[in-house]
Amino acid sequence: MGARVAGSVLLRHLAPRMSGSAPPPPGAAAAVTRPLVAGGGEGGAAVWVRLLSTSAAAEKEEPAAQKGEAAASKENTASTVAGKVEATRAAGEGANIVESSYWGIAPSKLVNKDGVEWKWSCFRPWETYSPDTTIDLKKHHKPRVLLDKVAYWTVKSMRVPTDIFFQRRYGCRAMMLETVAAVPGMVGGMLLHLRSLRRFEHSGGWIRALLEEAENERMHLMTFMEVAKPRWYERALVLTVQGVFFNAYFLGYLLSPKLAHRIVGYLEEEAIHSYTEYLKDIEAGKIENVPAPPIAIDYWRLPADATLKDVVVVVRADEAHHRDVNHFASDVHFQGMELKDTPAPLDYH
Ligand SMILES: [Fe+2]
Ligand SMILES: [Fe+2]
Q1: What is the pLDDT of residues 77-109, one digit of tens each?
Q2: Which ligand sits nearest to residue 179's alpha carbon?
Q3: What angle (nearest 5°) sits at the alpha carbon of residue 315, between those of residues 312 and 316?
Q4: pTM above 0.85, yes or no
């Protein structure tokens, strides 16, 4: 079946269901809409709008088109006003519509209920949150046993070169710190994932908890790179540190997850200290309290007039949560259990 013919066949099937009225003009694209309840912005709902262009349909054979028709019909029963508006707009644009993939992965958009398009592709409205900034920042795990002391002094010794290199350049320091901080969650999550596969057992939610932590740390980095641009030698340092730290943590986690989580717990305590110093310099006027980057405003649901200080406060709260999770994970091991024996603290912000 020719591409143009297949496209028009699919259009004939889909168009009445999409608009509920007359079929669109020749060459116009059909649109499939799907409502989605999400907590974006101030708890507002967002709408997932999937555009399916005629070019995608052109690539499909007849059975695929029939299957798509059935799915579209089912999903469309709950189409929303915003979705219809988008569909109408898409139909009006006709051939100018963005082409979807041969694989059926159509370009998708999220539209807030006020009609404003969600501009971030790296995270979705329902992944945003308001951190609990009332968390106790001073909580500290006192190193008592040898393993704790090894973890504690390992982290303390890592702080020395960091202090010498960055001194009080906290913007750069935060950025570099986050390139390291995003590693342990990914390594731990990956190893638990592999273990789950090998042993045919559940992880108790810990894989997701650790991967969530890694993603959260990476969002810290995405935020701070808007504030401080890394220079070439800082990028070179990241390469070196990542190469060493990833492998060291990987081996460390294989040998003793108890030690690995304890080290991260202490790293997070150091991160809280660094961000507290960062805040002091902002409050003293030594660092300009610039407007918060838009990505931070959306990710942490900050007010539109939020500043760098607000960002540092919420990031510091995140670090305190990571501290708790990792010390907790180490404690689980200390009690002779495995992580899967204790439900993971998911969505702990
Ligand atoms: Fe972080
Ligand atoms: Fe952290």
Answers
A1: 333 334 444 544 555 555 555 566 788 887 678
A2: 1
A3: 85
A4: no
